[in-house]
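Table S2 (text version). Query chain:
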Amino acid sequence: MILQSIVSFCVGAIFSIGLVLAGMTQPRKIIGFLDVFGDWDPSLVFVLASAVGVYFITFQLVMKRKSPLLAPKFLVPTSTDLELKLVIGGLLFGAGWGISGLCPGPALATLGTASASVITLMITMLIGFYISFYIGRLKK
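Corresponding structure-token output:
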């Protein structure tokens, strides 16, 4: 359990460093990337393509193992249903990303800057989590 926590922390730290180096923590760079019909900044295409490539190759290699190194079994999603809540969540995520220029990972990586925009994003994201959790409990 302790080793799993240490490895998780190290992987998260490496991920955060990668986000900073790739410019994913700069809202103006993200908004420039999303502004396809204006002053488009295509540099993040390389970041996204690299991430997808590394993930694809790593996933193929890892899934050839019988079990993970630090867990009893793989936790791979099996659901293929396209539910309305998934579509609405994706639309809200995309709108928030486009408006703020930050998604949750880079926002957490820049939380230490105490920027008003990052703190506002994190507060609204936590409110969204709470609303989603509360609505989910009402349906049960």
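Notes on Table S2: The mean pLDDT is 85. The two ends are 32 Å apart (CA to CA).
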